[in-house]
Amino acid sequence: MHSFTEENYLKTIYAISLRQAGDVSTNALAEVTATKAASVTDMLRKLADKELIHYKKYQGVRLTEEGERLALQIIRRHRLWEVFLVDKLGFGWDAVHDIAEELEHIRSDELTARLDTFLGHPQFDPHGDPIPTQAGLMPETEYRKLSEVNEGEAVRLMGVLEHSTAFLQHLDRCQLTLGCAVTLGEINPFDRSVRVVSEAGLPIFVSHEVARNLLVE
Amino acid sequence: MHSFTEENYLKTIYAISLRQAGDVSTNALAEVTATKAASVTDMLRKLADKELIHYKKYQGVRLTEEGERLALQIIRRHRLWEVFLVDKLGFGWDAVHDIAEELEHIRSDELTARLDTFLGHPQFDPHGDPIPTQAGLMPETEYRKLSEVNEGEAVRLMGVLEHSTAFLQHLDRCQLTLGCAVTLGEINPFDRSVRVVSEAGLPIFVSHEVARNLLVE
DNA sequence: ATAAAAATTTAGGTAAGTCTAAATTTTTAG
DNA sequence: CTAAAAATTTAGACTTACCTAAATTTTTAT
């Protein structure tokens, strides 16, 4: 069996791999796991011994097939629990990350399977992130960033790239909820902020910083 | 904050205190926690430093008020999760203990409160054990053991004293479910086994060993 | 009452996961 | 191309929770 800590490293390696090409560096892992590079090195040696990562000293790491399978299993559990917390318990989408971070480590395939059924086999978590399948596949999504949409286009808000409480609460205050349809107004050439118009005709001003963290289709 | 392991010790001290008078011995704890007496002594010193138990060397331990408050909080979470697993996810009552053993350590008062509401503020877990209140009180129950009931009496099955999978599955096979009404037939004077009759008139033979692990009212 | 048995604690050690400081390797800049 | 900077690894140490073996205290039985 793998420890809580090992699972978190696998998940983190997967997450970093998604947003950058090439192997994952020791320092990048140290930053995300909030530990020191020396501690990361220790753990990498251990994960390599277990053949969960490909690791050559000084060269960074990448998950093996088995490592990726485990990472996706943990991400699946995390996202299913987030759906539970929001849909069933009524938590806000900005309040579930830390709790799901603990729940994801409960080790029971039957629990995961029953939870999935109970929730109605959801495809996406409350932040619009796709839920890996039981078979261990991450569903592909074809979303663009709102910051890449042209004036006049009509799009639907499908996900977020930033998961911080502060960002999600900002979206709540702007009434930008997942699934809402918006039409792009003019883009301010100075700061690239943009006005979008909701279904209800309500104008919402969105900074470039926010727009590039919103996924639309 | 208190570690996973510390929480388990508190819960175990509480559980042992319930079924025997006087202080809890080091050996009793070693047996239940499946560790060695020397390890228990280490942990007792730590819990005493944190003022969660009263501890005098060689004299056994008992929970302080704060220790009992924490123990009841953990038991509350355990039992609420068991209700969730059985009522919402459809697990059998014989399959939930180990999973709840992990879930009980998820540390979020809001999670516990919302789960309680979601489940409809249940008073008892799937084994008939009372769920401690949010205020930290263990509800009193006035159940007798089936082995102490007289011939001819009509009683209702309210709980179990033994929680093993084997015992619970045995009850399932006998169609002895919580809440079912039975009337006591004759008690065999040789082995103290007893015949009970269900509501449907079905006769069920119950060994003394089983009868003294069944709680009725 | 006291010696043997049982229970408990102390002493010293291990593994996991972390740390700091020092050594080493790789990358970058002139 | 090479020296300085940055990244990474190694060495040695700490904490938690556990262990075994030995010492100590309490209990039990004659």
UniProtKB/TrEMBL annotation, chains A, B:
Presence of keyword Repressor: yes
Protein keywords: Activator, Cytoplasm, DNA-binding, Manganese, Repressor, Transcription, Transcription regulation
Principal subcellular localisation of the protein: cytoplasm
Record-level Gene Ontology MF annotations: DNA binding; DNA-binding transcription factor activity; protein dimerization activity; transition metal ion binding
Function: In the presence of manganese, represses expression of mntH and mntS. Up-regulates expression of mntP.
Family: Belongs to the DtxR/MntR family.
Protein name as it appears in the record: Transcriptional regulator MntR
Organism: Spirosoma oryzae
